[in-house]
Each structure stands twice: as structure tokens, then as C-alpha cells.
Amino acid sequence: MTAIIDYGVGNLFSLKSSLEFIGESAVVTGDKKIIEDSDRIILPGVGAFGDAIEKLKSARLDAILKEQARDGKPLLGICLGMQLLFTRSYEYGRFDGLGLIPGSIRPLRDIVSGDLDVPHVGWNALHFTDNKGELFKYTENGEYVYFVHSYYAAECGAVTAYTDYSVPVTAAVQSGRVFGAQFHPEKSGGGGLKILKAFCEVTV
Amino acid sequence: MITKRIIPCLDVKDSRVVKGVNFENLRDVSDPVSLAKMYSESGADELVFYDITASGENRALFTDILKKVASVIFIPLTVGGGINGLADFERVLACGADKVSVNSGAIRDPSIVAQAAKRYGSQCVVLSADVKRVGGGYRLLAKGGKEDTGLDAIDWIARCVQNGAGEVVVNSIDTDGVKRGFDLPMLSEVLKVVSVPVIASGGAGCEQDFIELFSKLPRISAGLAASVFHFGQVQIPALKRRMRECGIPSRIIREDLC
């Protein structure tokens, strides 16, 4: 069973449906016991970093997530959920993240060409690094996935895939069994479902 | 490189897709779930659903359909029609919409855009604007193009983006239904004032119209249309191959996908 962390951020309907579509049972929950009993955890999220980390903390989910990750349970952060895994973010201030992936979250506007729109919205291709990790075992280089974001992961040694938006932008990360996807696999058609399937096959 | 999106738009009334859909290989051409599936499999990059139901009681039918679509289609879904406040955002987001398109509702109460962007994030708020040439300027129309608001459309769009709209669908009433191409001069004015993705709507009649759109206005993010797709005048896989041949980045889906 996959626990989808519910902390009042974003639309979890598609994520739950997509897991069920590939034959995985999924529970949207903020309950400590259910999270501890799950086989794997997905941390979703849209909106602003500061808000989201506050919500996680006030629900005491930050400690649970850190503990579960330390125990080796597979954890996947999606979009803002990926960014929350990092050491810190500079979105409207300076905030500490969960610190499960070393690196920081910075504004896309600072690095992308001036004639490109921010947010980066739409389908863009994945380009794997030398270590594409377990998340992409069914995915070919160049697969298109759906992105919506205005901030990106910088100063990170755990990148497994980039996408090209005038400059290379972190698309996915992995450190041990902690995974992050800047894009939305649950909104990336058949290609996205393959990525979720690969995550569901990561064992403790 | 980010690809240019192709977006079919489905008008739904009483749980059926209306506006003359004509597909030979679909058993039930006006079933929103079958149509959405067909478009998703043929490479549509997103889908837009407009709820054109008039009465409140049929709103529930629409959200049922939306749930069914969102349970089997895993590409972004935008929902519009009858969005007049945060309660409407909540209602469609809970049923699987990823983005909510607001048009007349924002004209009645412009604070909706900022409120929704604050609560759900800008990525969730799509401003849809109907634009028509009046007396040498571009005028904003309301109620599906039936009512002249007297507002300057370009100013209105700029203002809504400042207030937090994350994307803009610009529909030209002058070219809508004419099928002789998108309204490039008007779209180019919009591009001058915003730096969020702009989606062109109104006027597509053939593949070449999309090629012209993306070649002449490289900053346009997406092309939206309804009947050219519904009637099969433009087939999405062929359109996307053509776009690639013309050097326009487009997402072509592989056949082996689940």
C-alpha cells in the first residue's frame, strides 16, 4: 500500500487514481500509524514552499517522513513535494526543508533565458545523467513528461534526470530510497504511469 | 526543449459532449469519457472541459463525468464554465481538475483571480478571455462573446496576470468559427504584456493554421480548438508529425505505452 501524504496541499485525486490504475492500492492520509504501516510514501504538493513546510510541521509529518526515510522506506516527492525534500529553499524568503536531499531550491527566472515564460509549464523531455536510478527503469531517454514550476533544485549532486529549458533544469533526483520528481508523473500520460510503476517496485 | 501543446476542448452539457462531434471509429461519439480517452491516446497534451449546463442541478452530472474522466485519463485537465467563486474551484478540483478556467466570473468579480491564486497557486488559475475588435481596439466580451464589457481586453489580461493568473486562453471572437487561422495580430498584442503561457483559441481550420501560429508567434505555448478535432479535419498525430517537420517542438507519443 502506498501512503499519499495529505497535508492540505493540492489535488490528490489524480495521483490516487493513477496508482489504482496501475494496480496499486493507495491511501490519502496524514495518519502516523497508516504511514508507518505503508510500503512506500508519496509526498505531493503544489503552491509555495514556506506554506507547505509549515503545514507539514504543524501536522508533525516532517518528523515522521524523516524517520521513515531513515528507516529506508521508499519515498517519492512530486513537484513541490520534491522541493520539500531538499536542505533549503529561497522561495519568498529562506526556509529549511526536510534535508533528505542535499541542495537548495532557487528561482527559475534567475537561470532561464529572458524570452522564455516562467512558470515552466508543459511537456518537456527527460535527459538522464550517468546514473538514472531505479525510477526510470522502464523509461527511455527523451521521454516527455509534464512540468509546472517556477523554482528549481540547484547545487545538488543527486540528479538522475535533467530537462532542457534554455539551461539544464533538475527533473529528478535520487539519494538512496528517497526519490524526487519535479514533473508530475500522474499527469504525464502512459510515460508517467511507467515511472510510478517503477517507484512501486522499489523494495524496502 | 519544451513542446508546443495541442489542446482539444470539449463542451459538455447534461453529461454529453455537444457541438457536433463526428468520429467514425467511436461507438458513442458524445460520451466524454470515450472522447477524452481517444484524444489522450492520440497525443493531446491537455484537455479542456467546458460545463455549458445552465441549471444548478445538472452541475452534479458534470462533476460525475469529470471524476470518471480523471480516473482514467492521466494528462492535465482544465475545467471551465460556471466558475464564479472559490466554491466552484473547490468543487471541480475535488473531482480531478488540475486547472480551473475563469472567464465571466472574473469579470463580475475580479478579485476571484487573486483569491484563487493565493489559495490554490497560480498554476491552477487559467484566465480565459473572449476578445473582439471594436472601433480600432480590442474589447473584452462576456457571456461567451455575447456581451460587450466596454473594457480593453489587453489591459484586462495584463491585470489578471498581475493578480495571479498562471496561464491565459485568448479566444478571438473575430476568427472563432471562421476556420481561416488564428488571430495572430491580436495574440501578438497579448504576448507583449504577459510573461505567462498564452494559449491561442479561435480560428483553426487546418494543420497549416497551427504551423503558422507557432512559426509566426514562437512565444505562444499552445493551440486550442474544438470542432476541427471533433470532425477529424485535423488529426493530432499527423499535426504533431507536421509540426516536427517544420521545426516546431512537439510531443509525439510512442505506441508501446500503457
Structure description:
- The complex is a heterodimer of chains A (204) and B (258).
- By secondary structure, chain A is an alpha/beta fold.
- Chain A has one domain (2-200): Rossmann fold, CATH 3.40.50.880.
- Chain A is 25% helix and 32% strand.
- Chain A contains 6 helices and 14 strands.
- Chain A has an 8-stranded mixed beta sheet, with helices on both faces. A 4-stranded mixed beta sheet of chain A has the order 6-5-7-11. A two-stranded antiparallel sheet of chain A has the order 8-10.
- In chain A, a hairpin with a 5-residue loop joins strand 5 and strand 6 (95-96).
- Chain A is globular, with a radius of gyration of 15 Å.
- Chain A starts with a strand and ends with a helix.
- The model of chain A has no long low-confidence stretch (mean pLDDT 95).
- The longest helix of chain B has 14 residues, at 59-72.
- Chain B has helices at residues 32-41, 59-72, 86-93, 104-108, 111-120, 153-162, 184-193, 207-216, 227-230, 236-245; strands at 5-13, 16-18, 47-51, 77-80, 99-102, 125-134, 137-142, 147-152, 167-172, 198-201, 222-225.
- The relative contact order of chain B is 0.14.
- Chain B is built from 10 helices and 11 strands.
- In chain B, helix 1 (32-41) runs parallel beside helix 2.
- Chain B starts with a strand and ends in a 13-residue tail after the last helix.
- Chain B has a single domain, classed as Aldolase class I (TIM Barrel), CATH 3.20.20.70.
- Chain B is an alpha/beta fold and 258 residues long.
- The A-B interface holds A 11, 13-14, 17-18, 20-22, 46-48, 115-125, 140, 144, 146-149, 164-165, 184, 186-194 and B 1-3, 5, 40, 45, 67, 70-72, 74-76, 93-98, 120-124, 166-167, 195-197, 219, 221-222, 251, 253-254, 257-258.
